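seq:
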Amino acid sequence: MSTQSGLSEKAAERLNSSLPVDITAAQVQQYPELVKLLTQLSQRITPEGTSLHVKQELEQAEEELRHEKHSWLLQHILYKEIEEFLVDLELKSKDVSQSPDDKQFQAMLQECLTLSEIEDYLRCSPDPSCKVNLLGLTAGSIHTQNPHTKNLSYLQQKLIPQIEERLGARCENLQNFQETENILDGSPSLAKSSQLPALMESQKRKLEEDKHQLERLYIVREKQFQTYYQTLLDSLHLLEELISKYRLQSQAEHDTVSSEWLVAKCDGLCLKIKLVELQILCDTYTMETTKALLKIKETLHSAKEEADKSKTYVTKTLQTYESLGSEFDELVTEYQRLKEEIDNKEWALSELQKSDS
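struct:
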C-alpha cells in the first residue's frame, strides 16, 4: 500500500511539473484514465500550456528578434557614441581653439551623420514590405548628395581609433560595475569586452532559472502548507473526538457524583442547623424561664389594658373639649395667662420676703 502511494505521489509531482495542473496522489489513484490523458498531453504541450510546435516557432521568432535587436543595438551604440563624440568636440572647442584640420574633421563628421540620419526617415510607412519612400528619395540618392564621399576613408582612419578608445573605456567601466575582474582575470581588455555579452546573458539566464526555481519552490511550499494544514485539521478533529469520548464523558460522570455528594452534604448541614436551633430553644426556655415569661406576659397584658383605658378616657375628654368650639380655646388661653400672672406674683412675693428677712 505504501509503495502504491509513493508511485502515485511521484506521478502527481511529474504531472504538476510538466503541466499547468494541480493534481494530488489521491486523485491519481482515483482517476487513472485522467492520468493517462494528462501523460499524453505532457508529451505534446509545454509546462506553460502551449504546444511544442508553437514553442519551436516562438523560439525561432525570438532568435530572429534577438539577431535583429543585436544588429540594431550595434548601430545604435555607434550612433550614440559618435553623437556624444561630436558634443565633446563642440564643448572642447569653446575652451580650447581647434586647428583647421580638427574643425574640418568635425564639420565633415557632422554632415555625414546628418545625412545618415535622413536615411532613417525615408521609410515613413510602418509596413516593412512597403517600398515607397519619403518624397521618392532613396539611400543612393542621399549618398550622391554627400560632398565628403571621397574623404570617407580619411574620416574612418581618424574616427575609428577614437571611437574604439571611448568604447574601450565604457567596457572597462562596465567590467568594474559588474565586478568581473576575478572572472575575466588574465584576459586582454578586448577579450574581456567580448566576453561581457556572454557573461551578461549567462547572468540573465541564471536569474531566470532562479526565478523559475523560486516559483517551483513556492508551489511546493503551498502544497506542503495545504498538506500540513489538512493534517492539523484532522489531528484537531481526532483530539476533539478523544476528548469528548473519554475526557468529557468521565468528567460528566465525576461532576454528577460530586453534585450528588454536595446535595447530600447540604441536606445534612441543614438538618444539623435545625438540630442546633432546637437545642438552643430547649436551653433557653426552661420551666423556670417559661413561668417567668408567663408572669411578664400577664403584667404586660394588664399594663396594656390600663393604657387602653387611659387612652379611651383622654380621647373622650378631647372629644368633649372639641365639642365646645372656639370658646374653649379662649378659656384655655385666659387660664394660661392668669396662671402665668399668678406665678409671677408668687415669685415677686417670695423675693420680697427674702429681702425683708
